[in-house]
Amino acid sequence: xxxxxxxxxxxxxxxxxxxxxxLCQYFYKVPCLKSSLLQFQIPxxxxxxxxxxxxxxxxRIRIRSRRRKMCGIxxxxxxxxxxxxxxxxxxxxxxxxxxxxxxxxxxxxxxDHSSSDPKTSSLPPSLVFRQEGNIESLVxxxxxxxxxxxxxxxxxxxHHAGIAHTRWATHGEPAPRNSHPQSSDPGNEFLVVHNGVxxxxxxxxxxxxxxxxxxxxxxxxxxxxxxxxxxxxxxxEGEGDQTITFSQVVHEVMRHLEGAYALIFKSxxxxxxxxxxxxxxxxxxxxxxxxxxxxxxxxxxxxxxLSKSGHxxxxxxxxxxxxxxxxTKKVLVIEDGEVVHLKDGHVSILKFDKEKHGGxxxxxxxQRALSILEMEVEQINKGNFEHYMQKxxxxxxxxxxxxxxxxxxxxxxCKAKTVLLGGLKDHLKTIRRSRRIVFIGCGTSYNAALAARxxxxxxxxxxxxxxxxxxxxxxxxxxxxxxxxxxxxQSGETADTLxxxxxxxxxxxxxxxxxxxxxxxxxxxxxxxxxxxxxxEIGVASTKAYTSQIVVMAMLALAIGGDTISxxxxxxxxxxxxxxxxxxxxxxxxxxxxxxxxxxxxxxEQSLLVFGRGYNYASALEGALxxxxxxxxxxxxxxxxxxxxxxLALVDENLPTxxxxxxxxxxxxxxxxxxxxHARKGRLxxxxxxxxxASVCPAEWESCxxxxxxxxxxxxxxxxxxxxxxxxxxxxxxxxxxNVDQPRNLAKSVTTQ
Length: 753
Ligand code: UD1
Ligand code: BG6
Prior knowledge:
This protein has 753 residues and is α/β, with parallel strands linked by helices. Residues 422-423, 513, 515, 518, 522-523, 526, 528-531 line the site of uridine-diphosphate-N-acetylglucosamine.
């Protein structure tokens, strides 16, 4: 068998270390190398050994290429429509504000200095502004610089291309020099904004340095604009008058990049043009036609719509839909390997053919149609609330209703109460036949799966195991063909969960996604799944996605579990409970002031323990996570059954101890836990079902605080029980003076491992 090398020779040198180099060089050859070797007459045992060694190497390389960093990229291009510089700046800043949850330690933009052709103008063509800190620091510094340099904010551009970036630092500390756009040279011939990680940047940097380039930043990104300039200059040298197109430059750059990325390129050699490309990291294009005839909708259904030039239009590129929806709902989700070229009001898409072994080879033009965003602008505004987290906590009755809409059936011609999950109906038989269901997720998504585990076990009778995505990968834990692996992720982008998905998929498991983001990597790469439809969640601490995830998993349990006579009453009670859930959540939200008062009492505390068990072990973990994440207070969720095996040592009259003791099969055990804590003079806060105050906390226990919540079917109780803890975390954060929506050091979706 002949092994063809499927990538051009790596003329840009070697990777970081010997093993990485070997892996990178042979990435594309591994499978064919493997089958060639196995043709030799070697003992079967050695063949198996070799085969698993190669599979392992391949997996490691793929996992390496998944590492991405969290950032937001945005671009705005106006074509044939006059826009003042101040307007362009506002669009770019607003775009960044919408993406700020993705990273907020530094930011930058690039706009044009002059509307005249840079080739004939003596003015410096592209202006770059970069600033450490959040978006507002950038905005302030830009206007300061504008004032100092007398830059005309009223200057009009009929065509203009601006790019923007908000960063979460991984390579190099937050500082202007490490912020994006990164530049090819002091004249900013090529500028790039990047979300992702370039894994071979050191090798590329070494080669570029040998070719005379000097580097200003510690980022992996800086190699990209410099490589673009190198490619451009070489082409110019070799071809004289023949010009190389912007997309040819970018194709050549992409061929040499390893890792994951979403990139937007701007260059003064190609004024008013932008190029976007991606491999791994998310990116979408928004299209706003400003021509009346075109906006009546007819153009939208035309697959060639994107190739129509001439009409005035505005084009947007963004890491996610949040930054686009206020301008247009017509979008195109850019796919891996695609290079999108915006030029003269024309959108052309070229796609790298993916070779058998993952390499990038020939390019071919592709036709794509736009789709409509199912999202409203109100979803991404704070409305009357002060913070996104507050808004998202309070909108849970509505988000839960949306999650269940069309999926719960009761009454009508068919009297039965039942569940219909459109995304799973063709796979239910396979899931029912699985030997095991494995829930995989990180952070809040993991906790949601933990909350749903008991009901899934009960109704399906299938063993359910729990995996934190990073731990599964660290252990390379066993996943079998007979497993159903369920990936739970609000963003659908989390790097650990994505890598675990790749791992489970390679091991032959049926992969099911539970995500909030349509078109996300997890939604696309799973065999099937359910969108939780909770609406955009912007606060970094997940709240409404958590409750919607639990509800989807409870519906999953109902869908998988057989409708037998013995469990009919239980199923119907759960379905009735689901119908009633938004009302119950509305009721528990009335505890807002009570939780604020409690927060006032806890404001100066160092630590908070939260005890739960059974259905509410997850509530304890999630409540503690919320307090830790946003209020920056140490907090631990503890399985109450483990209390005697260590945590009891911490209990005294000072440490606030929160116990979840709502009515379910574990209630009497929780009563006993409360007694034991009280006996050690524990400073108790007890959450119980309405009417149970006296049973959990006798009147003579003066220091004990009780929070009564509405009671409902045990498996749905975690949805109600988490709300007071979310409110507590929120108020504690505000009272302690911390940033609620952008907690220190955290980002909403963690796309780096
Ligand atoms: C779908 C439509 C919804 C429409 C409804 C009624 C979408 C996104 N949803 O909802 O607008 O009102 O039909 O017919 O078009 N999937 C995965 N992995 C995931 C999540 C989903 O593979 O992580 C797949 C599902 O298997 C399914 C598709 O994505 O094929 C849509 O899933 P979902 O939105 O949950 O399906 P419906 O509820 O049927
Ligand atoms: C991050 C977020 O840590 O990722 C958490 O800050 C979130 O809120 C976790 O729970 C997992 O994210 P996702 O998108 O996979 O649910």
